[in-house]
Design brief:
With about 210 residues, the chain is mainly alpha-helical. Helices cover about 55% and strands about 5% of the residues. A three-stranded antiparallel beta sheet has the order 2-1-3, with helices on one face. Helix 2 packs antiparallel against helix 4, helix 2 packs parallel to helix 5 and helix 5 runs antiparallel to helix 7.
Length: about 210
């Protein structure tokens, strides 16, 4: 009888040293909502300012050639008219992908709410990047054409010709969250065995 009882696995696990038996293990304290939201806002605020500056600095702008009739774009310059759109898309997607992955991993204990926090932060960063870029680099074209002389080259204004590039921030953050969530879910161990039947049966009656 003693050998059978010793062979059966015990359904109880010994508590850590210094903890009374039967005391439930304390779960990891959750981060306050205010801190999670504040950090996300600050991160995307700074990222939006830097991205807006980079958009203004590195966007290829088409050059108008001024003549007696005003300004005109050559065939080569026509291909650069959408340069700011492509630059904004690239900067926003990469920035949101990296920051979205880091923040989602940091906030993953919040579950689906972490996705909402990261995505909303990315949308805020997109708007800030556009606003900063327009503030630094957008100059009305007509006034500069009127002030220029024939033969001068006048840069096209920094602007987005469609709002699609602004969604690059949203796509990058959502993609990062989806990949990390899928990877984390697949890496979680799944219980495939149940408790031995002997541990659930009543002890033998003598």
């Amino acid at each position: 009888m003693s050998q059978q009882e010793s062979a059966q696995p015990s359904p109880y696990v010994a508590p850590p040293s210094g903890v009374p038996f039967g005391t439930p293990q304390a779960s990891e304290p959750a981060m306050p909502w205010a801190k999670a939201i504040l950090v996300t806002v600050v991160v995307f605020l700074v990222a939006g300012v830097v991205a807006g500056w980079a958009w203004q600095q590195f966007s290829p702008l088409a050059q108008y050639t001024v003549d007696e009739r005003g300004g005109a774009l050559g065939e080569e310059q026509m291909t650069r008219i959408f340069g700011p759109d492509g630059t904004f898309t690239s900067i926003g997607f990469v920035t949101a992908l990296v920051l979205g992955a880091a923040l989602f991993w940091w906030l993953r204990n919040y579950g689906p709410w972490s996705v909402a926090i990261v995505v909303l932060g990315a949308c805020m960063g997109s708007g800030i990047a556009w606003g900063v870029g327009m503030l630094l680099g957008h100059e009305p074209l007509q006034q500069r054409l009127e002030a220029a002389k024939p033969g001068d080259l006048v840069s096209a204004p920094l602007e987005l010709h469609t709002w699609t590039p602004a969604a690059a921030w949203l796509v990058g953050a959502a993609l990062a969250a989806a990949v990390i969530a899928a990877t984390t879910w697949r890496s979680e161990p799944v219980a495939t065995t149940s408790q031995p039947g002997a541990s659930n049966t009543p002890p033998p009656v003598h």
